[in-house]
Amino acid sequence: MTVSSSPSPLAGRRILITGAGSGIGKATAQLFTARAARVALVDNNLQAVTAVGDELKMPIFGCDVSNPDQVERMIPEAATALQGIDGIVNAAGIFMGGAIEDLRVHDWHRVMNINLLGPFLICRQALPALRQAASATIVNIGSIAGLQPAHGVAAYASSKAGLFMLSKCMAFEFGPTIRVNTVCPGAIETPMIQNGLTEDARARLQAANASKRLGRPEEIAEAILYLSSPASSYVNGATLVVDGGYSWR
Ligand SMILES: NC(=O)c1ccc[n+]([C@@H]2O[C@H](COP(=O)([O-])OP(=O)(O)OC[C@H]3O[C@@H](n4cnc5c(N)ncnc54)[C@H](O)[C@@H]3O)[C@@H](O)[C@H]2O)c1
């Protein structure tokens, strides 16, 4: 076996990251640029993504991933800015809680459109560019919520379960030069979870976790890096759970 002495497996790779204005997407953009990748930063929060773009000196794109017209316009612009696309990280997403009997149809559509339709639109639109790359990667950010049932998360969990299957279907249809994998985080310290978490809920989550703490966005970014790099060249259609040992308890 030969061991590569390359300084960074991501050097020169051109990666489009959605949800890059905050949390996991932002941490991924920071890690990837630190590892010499070039990234296109996509988010519908223009203020947030502008700040990340200024910090990393990378191109930004204000885009609602659930809007087909906006995605159709944005992808060619991002491909031009990066001079091609070698990879996608679909991290844009929203959380929505609520018992099934209380869920409004509008809210159901909203979470499905952002969490499931969004990655579909992004990947479909980027497919011609990805096919031009010698070896391309897609990493979709699912959730352990999509792998096991729980009370009060039906809409969110269903969107993530759908993303899990969409990833596998894409792996079949897009292979062999495009690999598609899913990272399923547990509870991670980002605005998504920090905004709604009571101290009691936090204590319960920590107690039920083998690592006895919530995760950090940087720890998810490392898993995304692995699946975006040649180090994972034979990992395809897989689901990598990164939850500190919560979901198997
Ligand atoms: N934080 C967690 O505990 C956790 C756990 C499991 C899975 N996830 C998933 O990880 C991903 C990232 O979440 P996060 O925790 O970093 O949340 P976050 O709220 O910190 O970041 C999400 C980003 O997505 C952007 N976004 C939302 N809707 C968008 C849209 N329609 N178009 C474009 N951008 C949009 C937001 O503006 C924000 O910048 C999400 O898919 C989420 O479901 C998070």
TrEMBL record:
InterPro entries: NAD(P)-bd_dom_sf, Sc_DH/Rdtase_CS, SDR_DHRS6-like, SDR_fam. Keywords: Oxidoreductase. It comes from the Bacteria. The keyword RNA-binding does not apply. Gene3D superfamilies: NAD(P)-binding Rossmann-like Domain. PANTHER family: DIHYDROANTICAPSIN 7-DEHYDROGENASE (PTHR43477). Belongs to the short-chain dehydrogenases/reductases (SDR) family. This is 3-oxoacyl-ACP reductase. It comes from Acidocella aquatica.
